[in-house]
Every structure is written in structure tokens, then in C-alpha cells.
Amino acid sequence: MIKIENIQIYNLQNAVYSARNAYMSWDKSDTILDGSNNLGNNDLNLAKSLIMAGPSHSKFLRQIFVNMDITAPLYFWKEADTYKVGTVANSCSTMHTLQKYPITIDSFSFDNIDPDKIIYENHHGGYFIKDFIEGTIEDCEKLRQLYLSTKDKNYWRALIQILPSGWNQKRTWTANYAVLRNIVETRSTHKLTEWLEFLQIIKKLPYGEELLT
């Protein structure tokens, strides 16, 4: 599961306009610098040609900033940390908030699996993936309640250590178009569906098809 909200784009026009600094070709710009995300055809063509020339020529992409709220499981964030260069994230703190709310199945991403897939069978019957998931969530909730009632940090520490990586965490994530282009190039065939959904959002950003894909 991944949810992306409140997307904002900054400095797109100025970033592309500044790409003309090298040859002082500002007179060829046909973008009205009104603070929107609209580019003139000349400037868009320049941007595309600079991208085709390689990263050293498309530095302007680093100056197009993107801000969004992303709610995703910890296993997604672990991989997203690969793209630390040029990114900032403010997250809802697991350290401070984990014990505040009941731990239920809605707190996790357990999608795209078959909960009725059997793990093993014995003379008592079958043990299924859903049994494992439900048992783990119940254990986490018991530890949370024990910590709240006793304030014994052993329970809290145990909860932090066994918390499944499917735990959903919200982060306000800031990056730039150069980072997003790198993500498109390296994650387009990834087996995590969260990345594929993320890429679909990226392609819908202003000039996503032209500048990012």
C-alpha cells in the first residue's frame, strides 16, 4: 500500500530558464515567468535536449523541487532511503507515537498476498498466512498495552524490535526532478508494487513524461 497526497512543485520555470545561463540565450526563452508550472515550447525543447545530453548537462533538474506526503510501509521506506542525495523527509515518529494508538491490521500493508496460503499442516489442521499475521498483530498490541499499564521499557523495546516491516508510516518527503528521474530509471521493473504505483504518480507530474520518463 502507498498513498501520496499534497504534491507541490516549486521553481520549475526558473530552473529551466537558468539552463540558458551557460550560453546567455535568455532571449530565446518563450516561458512567461509567472510562477506557474507552464513552459514555452522553446524552453521545453531545450530541457529535453539537455536531458538527452546526460546528467552533467541537465543540472537544472536538481533545481525543480517536489514536496509530497507519502504513507507507505517501512519496507518501502527502507528502499527509498537509497535516494538520500537531494531528499529530505520528516516522518511520523515510530519512537514517539507507536504506543498511542491500538495496533490493528489497518496499521499495516498486508496487501498483494493470499492470506489463505497454507504455511504448514499437521494433525491439528492447517496454519495459514493469515494466522501468522493475526498472531503477530495480537502480540504487538499486547506489548503495547503492557507498556502503557506498567511503563516498563522492556515491553516497549520488544515491541519496537518485533514490529513488522509492513507498518505504515507517513512522511513529508522533499526531492527534486533529478532524484525522480533516477527513481524512474532504476525502479520501473521493481517487484514491489509500491514502487510501480509511485512511478505512475511521477509520470503525472508537470512535464513528467518529457522530463522524467
Describe the 3D structure.
- The protein is α+β, with helices and mostly antiparallel strands and 213 residues long.
- It folds into 2 domains: 3-72 and 85-91 and 172-211, no CATH class; 110-162, no CATH class.
- Helices cover 41% and strands 18% of the residues.
- The protein has 9 helices and 6 strands; from the N terminus they run E-H-H-E-H-E-H-E-E-H-H-E-H-H-H.
- It has helices at residues 12-18, 41-52, 74-80, 94-97, 129-150, 153-162, 177-187, 193-203, 208-211; strands at residues 3-10, 65-73, 88-91, 118-122, 125-128, 168-176.
- The strands form 2 sheets. Strands 1-2-6-3 form a 4-stranded antiparallel β-sheet. A two-stranded antiparallel ribbon has the order 4-5.
- A hairpin with a 2-residue loop joins strand 4 (118-122) and strand 5 (125-128).
- It is elongated and about 80 Å long.
- The two termini are 23 Å apart.
- The mean pLDDT is 92.
Q: What percent of the residues sit in helical stretches (DSSP H or I)?
A: 40-55%
Number of strands: 6
Estimate the mean pLDDT confidence: 92
Biggest sheet: strands side by side, in what order?
1-2-6-3
Shape: elongated
Order of helices and strands: EHHEHEHEEHHEHHH
Strand percent estimate: 15-25%
Tally of separate domains:
2
Report the span from N to C terminus: 23 Å
Short description:
With about 210 residues, this protein is of the alpha+beta class. It has helices at about 10-20, 40-50, 75-80, 95, 130-150, 155-160, 175-185, 195-205, 210; strands at about 5-10, 65-75, 90, 120, 125-130, 170-175.
